[in-house]
Amino acid sequence: MAGEPQSDCLFCKIVAGEVPATLVRETETTLAFRDINPQAPTHVLVIPRLHYPDAASLAAGAPSVAADVLREAGEVAAEEKVDGQGFRIVFNTGAGAGQTVFHAHAHVLGGRGLNWPPG
User: Fold this and answer.
1) Is 43 a catalytic residue?
2) Which class for 82: exposed (0-12), middle (13-18), buried (19 or more C-beta within 10 A)?
């Protein structure tokens, strides 16, 4: 059920403290940690503590938490000092878009040139 922890979800296990992660920030509604397979010098994931399978379902089911994820992504960029040079916030939604963990999350990427279009 949306919003409820899922026993088979890696990110729910990180939220619960069952799986270790290198935490960057945490709030009442979000958790930010370093990606284990970084694609840029700064690559931090910002997740809601609530389980929603993707960004679209998070926005529909808990819009205030979706806003918290975006706000925290900006805070991460500032703390990582990539906000001045530019950074990217990416939500992959669905397997065809490259989503591999089906718990909504934002990738904060920076610290190198990011070409357009991505892919």
Assistant:
1) no
2) buried
Given 43, 51, 103, 105, the catalytic residue: 105
Backbone angles phi, psi at 76, to 5 degrees: -60, -45
Q: What mean pLDDT comes out for the span 25-44?
A: 97
| Longest CA–CA separation in the chain, Å | 40
| Residue 118: per-residue pLDDT | 80
CA distance 48 to 26: 10
Res 117 pLDDT > 90: no
Buried b (16+ CB within 10 A) or exposed e, 3-15: eeeeeebebbbbb
